[in-house]
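Task card 7
Instruction: Convert sequence to structure tokens.
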Amino acid sequence: MTYLPHTNSGDHMQQPITVTYKHTSNVYEANQFLREISQYPLIACDFEIAIRYTQAELDSYRIELESYTNKRRWQQLHSRLNATALDHPSHCTLTHCSIAISESEAYVFILDNPRITNRVLQFLVTTPIKQIWHNASFDFKHIYYHMGKMPSDFEDTQIFAKTILNHVDVQQATTGLKQLAGKWYGDWGLSEDNFTTDSYYDPKMLKYSAIDAAATYKLWLSINSYAQSDVSNNSTS
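Output:
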């Protein structure tokens, strides 16, 4: 496992941080959560995303594809059948948004209806609070697709980590969130088949989403502390 440099090597061996979280799919309760979140100067955020097509829709596309001769429609069906959650936002749906207010506290918004989805996205693009994301280029394409603009104040822990772990050997410069924060939270990853529209209320997915945001928050604190200490050491040398 790759670690960012730390002044305290004892951080590498410790009990996993326990993350507590609140969750909701109700827009009224979501507004209450967002008011609570707005009291903090720093938040860390993350989306969970799934393919938007149901199994029944995919089955119908396969049948249609076998008999369709129109090239444009064939290409459309083919792209839908081969889409993944990493593809263009038009193929995807946001299932969860997690917002952490510390390394151990988070809110999870279950985005199973347009009202709560729009409310959370509106918050993200209008709040003046600094937002921390890991691999923001992935999440922000979804924000921009839906809202036509980006958050106003943000940092990306993956880019920040890459500037520190700049190594000719790519294995020495991996910047995945699970790799960088696993020393604090253990292995919280889930298999790909968990990321579906059937998992909105799955306790495993809710916990996973909460830890993603909390781990991003913790990683930001760690990287920022390292960078600041390095600046301080250079200024006194």
